[in-house]
Amino acid sequence: MELVLPAVAVRRGPEGDQISYVASFTFGDIARLLDDGRLYVPNQPDLPDFAQRKPNPVRIKAIAQYILETYREGTTFFPPICVNVQPPPTYRNGNVYLPYHSVTLRLTDGQHRCFGIRQAIQDIQAQDLTNLGILSNLELGALLYSGLPLDLERQAFRDQNLLAQRPGTSLAHLFDKRSPSVLIAKNLMERVAQFQGNVETVENGLGQHNPKLMTLSTLVMATQHMFPNLRSKKDLEERTDWAVAFWIAAGSNFFNELWALTSVQERKRQREQSIAVSAVVFQALGLLARDLYLEGVPGEDLHKWLVKLGEIDWRRENKFWLERGVTQVGAQGNPILPNTRTTIDACHRVLREFVGIIPLSSTC
Q1: Is the pLDDT of residue 241 over 90?
Q2: 228-254 as b/e, with b when 16 or more CB fall inside 10 Å?
Q3: Which of 38, 140, 186, 348 is the most exposed place for a label (fewest CB within 10 A)?
């Protein structure tokens, strides 16, 4: 029995045998080849032909879920996998011929995609057999290397992973049209006056010459704190309107001047002197918003709950922040504000106290 794949030959180097092939496998083929041991992943360190990293079960589960959420819409976007075919395949008339019971397809890139595909097929077999045929017939692109020796296979694994670069988190969010929390955050950028034109959507961070208020990744994280584990778009408009009301209440009443568009020099001064323009505070405010949302506070009443935030002294040098574990003493003796979950939680506790969710333990 042969597996016949339509393919295009591509020249990898100047020598005649340095040929690879661009082809594709159906999702069903991938699951079957994994089960039969034909699609082989040398990912155990004690193997003599070890040439891959260990699989991550959490990542496999996430990929399977991604497939099940997107395949009906035709928006399952995967880059091709890379496979080292041993022994070298036969190529003629635009097809690669793989003798099923003697070929070994060694994955050099894409094991999590392949395991995720198999998991998605197993899940749909258990839940929704009517769509099994649709999912099984989807295709995944593949770059087939022809008979690479082990040392070159390892080199291919190294090069494919080391030279690849993921987009910055903010840029990835900017292009995301699917995730509910991202959709809310991008809506906030348009509807909250202080955020309009004031959120960095491309770079990973805010350098000293960037006068914007925060990155999109920070705003998304604050939104995820506000609505944790948000996967469904059900009630998305209601949640978005409430989030807009929260940030308008906070921004227009207490942080209007600090959060407004400003010059590079002024923003630099603000970052040096106040914690109110820090990612820590934005994320802590997201956690506070979650508290108020769970309390059932309507959007029109948020100003009443947030009014006491105006009494806080947000200066970085205020010893209150050091006493409450929000700031620390840096190497130069100046207060610093680490962007860690511990610091965010400490700031969140302070905000909860000031709005009256928990008793106030000291004054600011």
Answers
A1: yes
A2: eebeeeeebeebbebbbbbbbbbbeeb
A3: 38
Start-end of H helices in the chain:
27-36, 57-70, 111-127, 132-136, 150-162, 169-175, 180-191, 216-226, 236-253, 256-259, 264-273, 279-294, 302-306, 319-323, 341-355
d(CA 41, CA 200): 40
195 residue type, one letter: F
Residues 6 or more apart in contact with residue 177 via CB below 8 angstroms: 183
Least confident of 52-66, 104-118, 248-262: 248-262
Residue 347's CB is within 10 A of a number of other CB atoms, namely: 26
Query: What's the chain's length in residues?
Result: 364
> CA–CA separation, 105 vs 199, rounded Å?
46
Q: Residue 253: its pLDDT value, please?
A: 66
Which of 113, 23, 20, 98 shows the shortest CA–CA distance to 63?
Answer: 113
What's the rounded Cα separation, in Å, for the pair 297 and 305?
9
